[in-house]
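protien #1 (seq + structre)
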Amino acid sequence: VKGIYDFFTDDTELEHIAIIGPSKAAAELEGSKEFAKNFMIKNNIPTAQYQSFTKETINKAFVFLEKLKAPYVLKADGLAAGKGVIIESDLSVAKLKLKEMLNGQFGKASQKVVIEEFLEGIELSVFVLTDGESYVILPEAKDYKRIGEGDIGPNTGGMGAISPVPFANSEFMKKVEEQIIKPTINGFKKESFDYKGFVFIGLMNNNGEPSVIEYNVRMGDPETEVVIPRIKSDLVQLFKAVADNKLSEATIDIDERTVSTVMLVSKGYPGNYEKGKEISELNDAADTMIFHAGTTIKGEAIFTNGGRVIAVSAYGKNMNDALKKSYLKVKEINFEGKNYRNDIGFDL
């Protein structure tokens, strides 16, 4: 979002290095919720109705909220580490939360707030790799953002994920491609965006009809831990095809097995938490992969060093089989204050 692609392409000594990622201009799709919503409307991509507000227009924001049906969706316009979205059912509380956001709850990210109508349905994430002209659709995923079981409590960076998503059948994915992916890639061309890389499309499935919640211009976490393990093709060759504008000639081979991931987090996360807790039982298990996030090495031992500590991914013949393997390893791994959700996949 800050322009690493442009940094390389603008430097004569670095411009020969291929970068998988969009230009700074295109990265505004993630950097600004308002920019992304305008892009969707301009390209007839289905999304929720919305308006943007600042501290100076807060009274107009209150009026807009009063016109919407509960629950109310408040989004920090800028990047807020995946925590800048508030969904509130009570109008008076929503107004209070809006005031807090505009007064700096998320720093510069919430100097402007996008208020949206609430979309009913179930969420999923669709991932696309593009060279700006052609694209390939990667495995989809369903992640679980809230800290509490049953999807309650505050948002986190992600507590677990599943791929494939059972309801994302061929009919639904055809709608996603025709109504969302193709208009998105065509929109890049219309805007003359230099876009080589991943497009992460956060979607809502409302009775079989997809709508876009948000764009990210990268892969996401914890979705990556279930999407990438299902790609059997050589990723480097796919990246080379992107860099050479030959993605239309590439093929992608997907593993039909289900992959689940469960995130182990520190006690207190996403609020205040302690670091420096020694982690044990990190040895490999059958069909299981351990991805480190908030960890550090001290001498011969590994310690916690963040809120989201470790993701445990596993292959299975179906969702229940994969989850059984993930949770088996999750229960073996140990550190003081270990916390995780026991219900990943509960709504599938």
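ok now protien #2
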Amino acid sequence: MSRDGGFTWEEVQKDAHLWEFGDSGSILIMANDEEPTDHILFSTDEGRNWREYIFGDEKMRVKEIVTVPSDTSRRFILMGYYPRSPVVHAAVHIDFSSLITKKCILDLNHPEDDDFELWSPNELRNELCLFGRQVLYHRRKRDANCVVGKLLESKENFVKNCACEDVDFECEYNYKRNASGECVPVPGTQPLASDDTCITGDYWYERTAYRKIHHSSCEGGIRLDRGLEHPCPGYKNHGAFFWFIFLVIPFAFAGLVGWYYYRKNGFARGTIRLPGGDAGRNYNYYSDSSLSATIVSIPWYLMGLASMVWEAVSSRLGSATGGMRGRNGYRTVPVDEDAQILRFEDDD
């Protein structure tokens, strides 16, 4: 019998026996598989000690021991026949439910006080990882005399993923391992083409002679399944020079175009236009919704917004410096006495 997944074994009985376990391994039963018997052997400490239970007065040839598929029950059925009538099938029901009534205790916060211990499938192996991860399971302590029940249905303790190693990879299609353990092409076959589909990540890799085992969850380490690296198409894989050309140059060009129209049409600061307009200039009053007009309107909007901000900042600075201003822009001039008289005459 083994308690560690088959790494170590110990002999519990002589001769051939049928066996079955229930309640997640807290109870084991065996029956002779070579001759008729009237008893079974059972253990509640994982095979350390065995006791005998007589199930009938007549010996029966046991052919099978069955229980629920989940192996969580403490009820068993012996299937077989009696030697006096081999063609007649017989079944014997054995119930261990009343043998132990104490419930096992699992305390994740105080594991030293409960009825379970942590066990890893690779605790006796040189490799610390199995399928790219370290996993610890709860199993009942061998000397804990209690009932597990459904307590361990979802009690799997994940520890961590391991770095990828050679054991996490297998040969790709049309490859096989040679005497040295390396994957080499199968004669008469062609390697599969590389898959450049970008499902996750920013890169795709050329196919190699290896592929990662499907159940392995290893991360990092050596990646025998990755050949040359290629960036996936998308905005994440463009450098600073690309973004400079893509963003700065178009806005700079639009600004130059806007500035050109700004100077050409006399819209610079300080230009005075009379209400009558310029007789020599042809003004067209219509709405232009073309693409060029839309592009030109962008720098107009930006410069207008900047002008508003500049005026606000200038007004605040002017008030703080006692009204001193530069030559640009309009200023408030006090009205003298002559102007006041002229204004009155105009009113008359």
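The longest helix spans residues 291-320.
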